[in-house]
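During the reporting period, our protein records have gained a structure token line. A sample record is set out beneath this paragraph:
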Amino acid sequence: MQKLLLIFAFLPACLGLAQSAPPASAASQASIAALQQQAAQQPPVKGASRQLGIAYYRSGKLIDAERAFTAAMAQDPGDLESVQMRGLTLYRLGQPAAAIPYLERVRQWMPDANADANHVLGLAYMNARRYDDARGAFAAQYGVGADSAAAHLLTGGMLLDANLPELAAQDAQKALEIAPNLPLAHFMLGEVYLYKSDVAHALEQFEQERAVNPGYPAVYDRLGDVYTRMGEYQKAQESLTRAISLDVSSTGPFIQMGKVFLRRGDPESAAMYLQHAVKMDPGNYISHTLLGQAYRGMGKEDDAKRELDAASQIHSSSQLKLQPVQ
């Protein structure tokens, strides 16, 4: 089976909503028209319905794509590519439960054929609250045992991304029961506690992560965040300095350091770190907001207004606009 470039396959199932599709080019419209004619012939040209579905899928016409893949499967029940694409299309249409049987068939027939299908199957299982099955799908995607510590940690990460922190914590705990020194498991638990603003337990977990994974820059970034929330600015500064020393490519520690210096009443030092963060990532509205506050603290009102206006514009333009699926 030819593996496809699965554009937008991992968008959340939004109950019938999706990002608006880009306008179809004249060439793609002509291609769709030609495929429609081939699919409408009696008998249809072999493979035309499948190719029409793919063209619809790539142009964001998901309802038409699902119909085309349905027709392709009726013409050839063994057309595995159409089975897979129908499952992916149903997932994008906000019908994860309906997508599961088709994605399961792909995995049954060709277990290692397409990691993308395993990933979407795992997400569909999560939507259906079949969390053990989701772990099995993610484990297959990454080639680890379904009951391994790695599989639980992978699933925990997916659950955390899906805004299911309590379930993520359960998988992280299970991973630690299997492998007590597994890197990133304590980090995940710390993230969950930080999400719940439980800074005491977050600190405990991040310190345990630091003990088993001392070269991981992000743990010092999170420790800096925790210490900042606790008002222990010297400890925050020390942790963030370690984060920056280990990884100068991440904006997070520079932003956090700017925040620490603002809290300490030192806008000049804050501006130095925040200017660097803005240079690294001009599209981050938080950096612009904090830099505007630093400039205001320095009495540079024109600079402050420029940064705060930039932050407002970036934040406004980044809001996701949803439209009904075509």
About this structure: The chain is about 70% helix and 0% strand.
